[in-house]
């Protein structure tokens, strides 16, 4: 681990927190609420625990950054694609499992949530990869 690794985690965590607020808290807020069951609306915290969101984002960024560094995805495109696939698989597992056990949201919501979250974390992975790869000389072909 080097300074770029820690810088990547700090910057990407910051962007994920505020990007998530913008995407999920503003852009898709009405859609997400319209897909939630009445029971889940009663159980939701309002406002949510910001410290928990921050820690969750840091953990996710740490996972993605470790994988990107391990596999050598040090460009935006490679970081985006690697993070997109990891996020897709994790969100698929998570959303399908939640749907299987809880009456929280409609099945149609699964597809939108998986796509939106995968794309969001793909972008975050691309940003993390750019920071990880900064300072590297790109060989000319």
Task: Please tell me about this protein's structure.
There is one protein chain. This protein is mainly α and 141 residues long. It has one domain. 80% of the residues lie in helices and 0% in strands. It is built from six helices and no strands.
Q: How is the topology of this model organized?
A:
Layout: H1 3-27, H2 29-35, H3 38-43, H4 50-71, H5 76-101, H6 107-133
Helix pairs in contact: 1-4, 1-6, 4-6, 5-6
Quick recap:
By secondary structure, the protein is mainly alpha-helical. Helix content is 80%, strand content 0%.
Give the DSSP E fraction (strand runs of 2 or more residues).
under 5%
Helix content: over 70%
Coarse shape: elongated
Rg from alpha-carbon coordinates: 17 Å
Number of strands: 0
Number of contiguous helices: 6
Sheet of most strands: none
Average per-residue pLDDT, rounded, comes to: 91
Element-level helix/strand string: HHHHHH
Low-confidence stretches: none
Category by helix and strand content: mainly alpha
Number of domains: 1
Q: N-to-C terminal Cα separation, in Å?
A: 29 Å
Summary keywords:
141 residues; 6 helices
């Amino acid at each position: 681990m080097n300074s770029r690794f820690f810088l990547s985690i700090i910057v990407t965590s910051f962007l994920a927190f505020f990007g998530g607020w913008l995407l999920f808290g503003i852009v898709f807020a009405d859609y997400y609420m319209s897909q939630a069951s009445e029971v889940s609306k009663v159980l939701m915290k309002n406002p949510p625990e910001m410290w928990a969101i921050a820690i969750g984002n840091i953990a996710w960024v740490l996972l993605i950054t470790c994988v990107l560094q391990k596999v050598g995805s040090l460009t935006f495109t490679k970081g985006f694609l690697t993070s997109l696939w990891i996020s897709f698989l994790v969100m698929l597992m998570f959303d399908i499992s939640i749907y299987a056990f809880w009456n929280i949201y409609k099945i149609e919501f699964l597809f939108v949530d998986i796509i939106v979250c995968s794309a969001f974390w793909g972008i975050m992975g691309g940003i993390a990869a750019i920071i990880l790869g900064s300072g590297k000389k790109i060989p000319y072909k």
